[in-house]
Design goal:
132 residues; mainly alpha; 434 Repressor (Amino-terminal Domain); 76% helix; elongated
Amino acid sequence: MKQLDLRYHLKCILKERDMSQVELAQNIGISATNLNTRLARGRNCQLSLLEEICKALDVDLNRLVFGTSADWRPERTLNTSALEETDAMYREKYIATLEDNQRLHQELAETKEKLYALEKLSLQSRKSGNGE
């Protein structure tokens, strides 16, 4: 399975280009520390940053992300069980979110009912206080 190891792939590309990460950071207009921190996020790295890096290094996004050429497609080589595991994880999160949403809607409905009952009591109290 191809690894999504941005820092490793970037290191290899920089070595080929005889360029440092500091020089790359300067070329894309950010500090070396900022670049390193953003790359440390790995899969959560912003696409705009990856595009800037690819442009500065004149490489394809697949090469940077997967260490492969442009014709490689992840769906051809990804482990099916890993995909199923990921799918199951997201389904569980989705179901949990739906259950939370349903619970919150129920709580909101109950709160509205309580508020309506309090308003009704308040109105009745004002009417009885005014001698009506």
